[in-house]
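Blackboard transcription, Thursday session:
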Amino acid sequence: MQFTIQSIATVHNNRQMIQDDRWGEIISTIELADHIHEASLKGIEDFSHLEIIFYFDKVTDDQIQYKARHPRNNQDYPEVGIFAQRGKNRPNKLGSTTVALLEVKPRALIVQGLDAIDGTPILDIKPVMKEFLPKKDVKQPAWSVDLMKAYWG
Amino acid sequence: MQFTIQSIATVHNNRQMIQDDRWGEIISTIELADHIHEASLKGIEDFSHLEIIFYFDKVTDDQIQYKARHPRNNQDYPEVGIFAQRGKNRPNKLGSTTVALLEVKPRALIVQGLDAIDGTPILDIKPVMKEFLPKKDVKQPAWSVDLMKAYWG
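(Written on the board underneath:)
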């Protein structure tokens, strides 16, 4: 089944190049697309965090991984399936990240910690509610802890 | 900007009708689509939780809300923008939920707490890593706490 989706906003920040690490301090402006009404943001200032779903538009179709690979092509990490990692070269090219909401403007949001480069199309914005966080302890393999060491900065 | 996306898996569970509440005990099978290699799940058993991005395919285009509305049409809740709530009638019809991973089969995952009905197309599966959870306390308005009271059951 195929579906058509459309960007509802665009990222503006000072990161022009794809980069693996140090995303924590990046401040981004998420600017609504023309066809989205500013009322869509009403009341969003009452949330501290947002979940941003975006589209890795710089990934070409031939880069998409459908099987398994070493995360970051690092042979020290085990070979794991594309759905057992969060890398960008994935089917449907969807990214999803929780950010801190710093400021709300009439047609834009200022957020911290969005790991998307300047110009990235945004597909959805959802408020983070505690009730949607994991209900029990999160377990994850050692390679993923190592990979994330410098991710936020 | 428009993009085409394709389901990579399908939900199977015993919930046939759209329902607001009591999703916590629902056990779902996520079955890979034919064009997705089973190696895409390699190593996923080392994660306790997954983030599932899915498509609200039962929502018709005329149901999509681009402005603001009372969540669940409940007048006791404030009118808030569609991006300040998680309701399904949203631009791009994307859902995103963290589930507990119970079991891995060669071409399927058994998960608990997926709030999607039987037959829902799945667009992405991402492992939950602690480093992607909110870094500070989550703040949210009182209406959202009230709305979530019976959501998981």
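Lecturer's comment: The first strand of chain B starts at residue 2 and ends at 6.
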